[in-house]
From TrEMBL:
SUPFAM superfamilies: Aromatic aminoacid monoxygenases, catalytic and oligomerization domains. Pfam families: Biopterin_H. Pathway: Amino-acid degradation; L-phenylalanine degradation; acetoacetate and fumarate from L-phenylalanine: step 1/6. The keyword Phosphoprotein does not apply. Coiled coil: none annotated. PROSITE patterns: BH4_AAA_HYDROXYL_1 (PS00367), BH4_AAA_HYDROXYL_2 (PS51410). Transmembrane segments: none annotated. It comes from Vulcaniibacterium tengchongense. Fe cation binds at H136, H141, E184. Its cofactor is Fe(2+). It is an enzyme of class 1 (oxidoreductase). Residues 1-297 form the Biopterin-dependent aromatic amino acid hydroxylase family profile domain. Its EC number is 1.14.16.1. This is Phenylalanine-4-hydroxylase.
Length: 297
């Protein structure tokens, strides 16, 4: 049994069919209405992920998550986390119904507000969910907002997103790819190895293992414009993971004005999700085992 309130969802017909677009309203976290099942889902996912992430996740991710007091006991209160976040980097969490229109999402990030879905998945959805729920957002995205460099990157991303929205759809596609291959599915070099910092990976047990240990995917050094040209996967493991040397590299790479970059990219083809270029810094050239031919976005 899930927390009571039905989620207000409209479905919009797009080229990808009917996609849920939630109301843009900010909602209070209905903490008192979470059921024992909701807390159990949180506890199960939290314990399972913390176990699989030791030695696999970025030290900074594990450190910040522990520092802000996230535990498996129960779903954290946004108010408690906000006290820590405001003090550390000036960020705050706002409750939302789910996926937001892009401009609304960018505007939140531009003002150091991270939108967190207030509801958590059901027990039968433990292993896969097609949209971000509370576990993905809170466990996956929030800890690194305690890190000042990553916190700045996320705000810069939001400011860039608002600008890109004004430039046009091609710029938005380029920028969404950057978010996808860093914030959601990024790897970082640490202690002589590769570690995970992407939220889409840390909230998934199987991908936490796959992205580092499978022979299938490419692992390629971060290159801003290369990433902004590269298509990605929504419904399967990534074919390619990009590796940063440090969180500072994200800030340095995104400091310049993007307008000339968008103009240059507009004259270049997109790169297929599984491609490896001669100019790439290759940590692993993937075997491609299990890749589906179609479906890159
Ligand atoms: N809305 N709530 C929410 N969370 C996201 O991560 C999110 C979103 N809307 C759009 C979006 N992400 C992506 O398209 C970003 O690349 C903008
Ligand atoms: Fe996410």
């Amino acid at each position: 049994m899930n927390a009571a309130t039905p989620r207000r969802v409209e479905h919009q017909l797009t080229d990808k069919g009917y996609v849920p677009v939630y109301t843009t309203a900010v909602v209070e976290q209905p903490w008192a209405r979470y059921t024992p099942t909701d807390h159990e889902v949180w506890a199960t996912l939290f314990a399972r992920q913390r176990e699989v992430l030791v030695g696999r996740a970025s030290e900074e991710f594990l450190r910040t998550q522990a520092a802000m007091g996230m535990t498996p006991d129960r779903i954290p209160r946004f108010d408690d986390l906000n006290r820590q976040l405001r003090r550390a980097t000036g960020w705050e969490l706002v409750g939302v119904e789910g996926l937001l229109p892009e401009l609304t999402f960018f505007d939140h990030l531009a003002h150091r507000r991270f939108p967190v879905t207030w509801w958590i998945r059901r027990p039968e959805q433990l292993d896969y969910l097609s949209e971000p729920d509370l576990f993905h957002d809170l466990f996956g995205h929030v800890p690194l907002l305690m890190n000042p460099v990553f916190a700045d990157y996320m705000q810069h991303y939001g400011l860039g997103g608002v600008k890109a929205h004004g430039i046009g759809p091609a710029a938005l596609v380029n920028l969404t790819r950057l978010y996808w291959y860093t914030v959601e599915f990024g790897l970082i070099r640490e202690n002589g190895g590769l570690r995970i910092y992407g939220s889409g990976i840390v909230s998934s047990k199987s991908e936490s293992i796959h992205c580092l240990e499978s022979a299938a995917p490419n692992r390629i050094g971060f290159d801003l414009e290369r990433i902004m040209r590269t298509r990605y996967r929504i419904d399967t493991y990534q074919k390619t993971y990009f590796v940063i040397d440090s969180y500072e590299q994200l800030i340095e790479a995104t400091a310049p004005d993007f307008a000339p970059i968008y103009a240059r990219l507009a004259r270049q083809d997109s790169i297929p999700a599984g491609a490896v270029l001669d100019t790439d810094t290759v940590y692993q050239r993937g075997s491609g085992e299990g890749w589906l031919e179609d479906g890159d976005v």
